[in-house]
Amino acid sequence: MSPFLDLPPLTAAHFAAIEDKVAALLHTDADVIITQGEALLPLEAAIRSAAHPGSTALNIVTGPYGQTFGNWLRDCGAEVVDLGVPFDSAVSAEQVADALRARPEIDFVSLVHAEAATGNTNPVAGIAAAVHAHGALLMLDAVASVAAEPLLTDAWGVDLCVIGGQKAMGGPAGVSAVSVSDRAWQRIAANPAAPRRSYLSLLDWKDRWTDAGRAVLPHAPAQLEMLALDACLDRITADGLDTVIARHRAAAAATRAGTRALGTLTPYVGRDEHAAPVATTLRTPPGIDAAALAATLDPALPVQAGGGALAATMLRVNHYGRAASLEVVQDCLSALGTALGATAATADGARAAAAGAWRAATAPAN
Q1: What is the chain's mean pLDDT, rounded?
Q2: Alpha carbon distance 337, 93 (integer Å)
Q3: At the topology level of CATH, where does 240-362 sit?
Q4: pLDDT at 294
Q5: Which of 85, 136, 265, 297 is such that its CA lies 20 to 30 A from the CA of 105?
Q6: What is the pLDDT of residue 1?
Q7: 3-state class (DSSP) for residue 25
Q8: Which residue spans within the chain are E strands per DSSP?
Q9: How far apart are CA 290 and CA 282, in angstroms?
Q10: Which tens digits make up the pLDDT trace of 251-302?
Q11: Which residue intervals of the chain bear CATH 3.90.1150.10?
């Protein structure tokens, strides 16, 4: 029998220890709940727990996930104020502060840290400061940013922080987590519409697990996924979180530099400071269909067409987890250069530009 089919049950103590490792990764002393499903589960659970008829939410839309959050908030009966910016840019703390001043009744804010689908990232620290000065609760989707850029949950004042393990952490997609501040628990407990006796219920987890001393698991966990999450957390600790973050930043810088040297494609997110470290999105020029181009590449390469309406005009190079390496970036550039008919000299120049950007991004600070 395979050793993976004959494992002893995951104990409550082991489950709690993995939660503690997640809390350390998030730099939080708040309760952390590991949910047994991919990250859409705790994202929806957080919104349905905190939003209710009579509440007013500011939903910051910098990509497709922000659009999804707005739909959930409206479904909960909340009045939703959408703050949208072009998907090739980032929202600013000033824009958020202006939106909050215009609507003093806003009591909940939803924000995506990094949008892997569009390749942008938002300045959470400044936004969180504006949200807390206003007195609202902040929910952050950090699925694509955790382990790729700093995430200081408590220092920034993030009330609900949702992560998944499948991107920069290099772990499984089948489990996810959410940290819940005391302020968030108070709001959820006071919400008569918060899910109970439901897979979406954070309060069920609090009552049956967190507040009960984490002594008895409320149900059988997804054991292999939990062990994989534990292993990837240990790997991040062994490598050093700062090192992992630096590797992702270097991969993004190398991809952008190499793409510019290649010539035909251009970064979808124009400003480097707005670019996410987990994925670089690229515009294809008129006459080149992104989906058709992606279909010609080796499927082992982390390159795909954009989603939805962007499928014809956007390519996405995913450089997260194990793909956050100079070798992978250069392999992607070589394949794109070949597919686009670049000369050998141009392809060599793109790889050299990527290598130079990687060295600059990883050079020790003076």
Answers
A1: 96
A2: 38
A3: Aspartate Aminotransferase, domain 1 (3.90.1150)
A4: 96
A5: 85
A6: 46
A7: helix
A8: 31-35, 56-61, 79-84, 108-112, 114-115, 120-121, 137-141, 160-164, 176-180, 266-267, 279-283, 303-305, 314-318
A9: 9
A10: 999 999 999 999 999 999 999 999 999 999 999 999 999 999 999 999 999 9
A11: 240-362
Closest C-alpha among 303, 256, 273, 311 to residue 64: 311
Conformation bin of residue 176: beta by default, left when phi > 0, alpha when psi is -120 to 50: beta
What whole-number distance in Å separates Cα of residue 109 and Cα of residue 59? Answer: 6
Whether 36 contacts 173, CB under 8 Å: no
With a pLDDT cut of 70, the percent of the chain lying above it is: 98
Tell me the two tokens of residue 150.
């700093």
The three-point CA angle 212-214-219 to 5° equals 95
Residue range 3-238, CATH number: 3.40.640.10
In this structure, which long-range contacts are made by residues 1-7, counting pairs with CB atoms below 8 Å and at least 24 apart in sequence?
A: 4/224, 7/223, 7/224, 7/227
Contacts with 80 (C-beta within 8 Å, 6 or more apart), sequence order: 56, 57, 59, 70, 73, 74
State the amino acid at position 22 in one-letter form.
V
Is the model more confident about 137 or about 9? Answer: 137
Tell me how far apart the alpha carbons of residues 347 and 340 are, in angstroms, rounded to a whole number.
10
Q: Is the dihedral of CA 28, 161, 165, 221 positive or negative?
A: positive
Q: Residues spanned by CATH 3.40.640.10 within the chain?
A: 3-238
Residue 340 has pLDDT above 90, yes or no: yes
CA–CA dist 92, 274 (Å, integer) = 10
- C-alpha span between 139 and 46 (Å, rounded): 8
